[in-house]
Amino acid sequence: MKLVILGGGESGVGAALLAKAKGMDVFLSDKSQLAEKYKQTLVTNNILFEEGQHSEAQILDADEVVKSPGIPDKAPLIQALKQKGTSIISEIEFAARYTKARLIGITGSNGKTTTTLLTYHLLKSAGLKVGLAGNIGESFAKQVIADAFDYYVLEISSFQLDNSYSFHPHIAMLLNITPDHLDRYEYKFQNYIDSKFRIAQSQTKADYLIYYNENPPIQEELAKRNLPVALLPISLEKEMARGAYAAGNNLVIQANSKLVLAQEELPIQGKHNAINSMAAILTCQLLNIPEDAIKAGLKTFKNAPHRLEKAGELRGITFINDSKATNVDSVFYALESMKRPVVLIAGGIDKGNDYTQIEEMVMQKVKALVCLGKDNSKLIAFFKDKVPMIQETEYIRDAVSLGLELADPGDVVLLSPACASFDLFKNYEDRGNQFKQAVEELVTKNS
Question: Where is the Mur ligase C-terminal domain (predicted)?
Fold first, then answer.
C-alpha cells in the first residue's frame, strides 16, 4: 500500500513511523522545512521524505493520504486528491485502526487541554495503563506502534475530526461549542458544529457522550440527531439524575456511583473548570475508579502552562498568563474567574471574533485594555466607548509595562488575547513565554 503523509510535524512523523512498522510504502512531504529532530527520525528509519515542496505526481499516486490538521481542505493539492477519489484521513483516524486500547476523546472550543490533562492524571494516578496523545504530547500513531496502554486519553481538535470517519471513542467529551476557526469553515458556524459532532459519529449504545448541558449549540444539535450513545449531561444550573451538576458550593457527580465534592477542593478554579473537572471525574466513575483514588488524584494535579498561570507579582499587582485563550469564549471564562479589577492585554490575528460575547464581562471587570497586535483596529473600534482606557503596542515588554502603569495595587494584569498569535509570535506558547519573561524582567528591575 502506498501511503503519503502531508506534513512533517509530530503527528506526520508519528504516522510515518507507524506506517513503516506496518510494512507500507511510505512517503512524507512537507511544503516547509522540517525540524532537525524530525528529519533525523525519518533518516534513521529509512523513510522517504521531501521538504520545501510537494511533488504532486508522487502524492497523487497514493492509495491513501494522512493529512496534517494544519492543511485546509481548500488547498489545491487536497482538492486534486479529492477529485481523484483518494482517501484522505487524519493521524487520529490512522492510528486508531491499530490499537486494542479503549479511547477517550475530548473536544470542545475551550477547555480541551485542561480536561485532557486532568483526565489522564486521574487515570494514571489511579494505576491504569494510560497514554496521552492527540493534540498534545507525543504522536498517537507513534505510541500505537508498541500499543502498550489499555486506554488513551486524546485531545482532539475540529481539524483532526474533519478527516476522521471510523474513529471510535468509548467515552467522548463535548465540552462546549462556540464560534472558532470560522475562517476554516466558510464562516459558517454550522459547519464547525458538524465538525465537533464527528466525535460521536461512530459511537454505539455501549459508549458514552459527556457534554455540557447549558451550551445552546450542543442542545440544539442533540435535539436534531438520534445518537444511540448513552448521554451524560453536565449542568451548572439544574440537578441531573445521571451525569453531574453544581449544587451550591458542591459538585455532584453520578455515573456508576454518587460522589459529592466541594468546589474549593478542585485544583482548578472557575465555572469553566468546574465543567472540565466534572467531565474528567465522570470518566473515572465510568471506568470504576474508587472515590478515594479520584480525590487523591485531584490533590496532585498541576495544570499546563499558559492557562490562567500566575506569572509574577509587583507592587501588589498580579500578572496572569492566559496566552492559550485564542478565542473570545476563553477570555469570557478567564474574566469570569477574576475577582479583582483587570487590565486586559488582548489582540493578535482575529479569526472572525464576535466581541459581543464578552462585552458585558469587559464592562464589568476591565478598567483598561492594552491591544497587542499588528492590527488592533477591530478591538479598538468595538471597545472604544466601553473601556475607560485603551492603549496599543506591537511589543510584549511595552504591553507588560503599560499593564503595570495602568493597574493599581490589588489589580490583575491579564494576558488573555482572544486571538491567534502568529502576527508577532511563533505560537501561543511563545507569546506566553515572552510575557512571563517580560514580567520577570520588570519584577527584577523594580525589586
Answer: 306-419
